[in-house]
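Record type: monomer structure entry
Structure origin: computed from sequence
Chain ID: A
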Amino acid sequence: MPRAIPLNKGSQWPYIATVRPERLALEVWATGLQAAWLVAESHSVISHRVMGLSGLAPRGKDEVSRMFVEKGTAFSAAAIAGALLALSGRRPDEVWRAMMQPLRYTTGRNLRRLERIRNLHGGQRRAARARLAAGMTRRDSA
């Protein structure tokens, strides 16, 4: 059976010719799924931080500086990963997935850390709000 794609045209053509179409469709779909997870985790991290900065939820002392420092490192790692794969002639979905990996790692790590802070201090804040609503002080409840 003759090949539809000539194998001697550019560095990426042999690689694309060896991928079966159904496998390529699944890989593109998996890349879109990773992008959806990135959006969901980013939204959760942003909502945790907005609530922490407004005083509605507990937050770490260095949360504001951490917010700015981690963006630079994550986006530079994503740019380097994407550039290296793009220069090596990989498919666009692979380049996009490689660029999302450092961002997903950072957002996942932040989400777990912020949830841990909230769970650690959330019970104390709920108890304080309940005492305040009941008109009690800490000494009255003991």
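Annotation 1: Helices lie at 13-18, 21-53, 63-87, 92-134, 138-141.
Annotation 2: The chain has one domain: 13-141.
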